[in-house]
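Below is the record:
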Amino acid sequence: MRVGVLVGEKGDWRFFKEINEELGEWHKTEVFVDKSYQIPLLYGRLNRWAFHRRIRSLLQHNDVCFFEWASELLWPASYMPKTCRIVTRLHSYEITYWAPKINWEPVDKIVFVSEAIRSKFIKSYPAHAAKTEVVYNGVDLNRFTPPAQKEFRFNLGMLCNLHPVKRVYEVVLVVLELKKQGYNPHLHVAGGKFAGGYFDDYFESVKSAIQKLGLTENVTLHSYVEDTPHWLQQIDIFISNSYWEGMPVSLLEAMASGCYCLSHFWDGAEEVLPLDHLYVTNMELQQRIIDYVHLPDRDKYSAQAAMRTLACQKFNIVQRKKDVRRIIEKVGVGSFS
């Protein structure tokens, strides 16, 4: 089958590499490449023309086109003459920003990363409910593994850009409260500033709070981490404190790495973690951390193993990439001649 691959969000391949490799092993794939022209006076209009022409070409020359991210590439494609089948994967924030702009009529299948996000879509677009399907994100279980032996060092971890939605500031305040109670936690936040200079004020506010609260020995802001598997093996308790998520891959990686994971109750968190790993308030998070700290070592090891087992059962990338491929194949069977 001929499969056109269009990766939105300015070419954000973070969650799609394994799926694309799977598609390439079974089918002939053609990847969208955005080309820019730098001709004075005309480059803006010329680039828009070339952008739409390239999308139209993939639609015309493939049996099915897969849009990773239901965003800026799917938007114009959804208003072009229908010449092939269309499948897209919608992660999370597209539901509020891009979905209202897209013409959903020519889209044959919409793959969601969680039931919670699918429910939000169906509530707004009930006529397209039959097109929806859920495939959880996956993690490479051979790459992300628990360490052979792990001594508890009270390392808390968050893996994210410094973005308000991630609520790192609030976790810094939890670290302060733990210190007041006589504990000595160390919060590691990996990811650095949000790209493009956005939310620099948030980044500076978090840094300032760390300084003003005397937490420089208890909170470390790391930049982008190259060796994520090794970094996660040093983390005892991984925290997902966001108020909005789809299916955060960093949380799945932490589970696979044997971290004890806790999460705020964002919509869909219950699809990832057991209910007793979820919390609502900062005080509840603080108490969950303290409860884990006081567990005997054998119980800590059991809890870590349970996280790994859950990741293996529900979020194995080997199975998840097959699920996405089979959806594309099923849709492609009805491709246009």
User: Anything to note?
Assistant: The chain has a mean pLDDT of 93. Residues 74 and 283 are 42 Å apart (CA to CA). The first helix runs from residue 8 to 11.
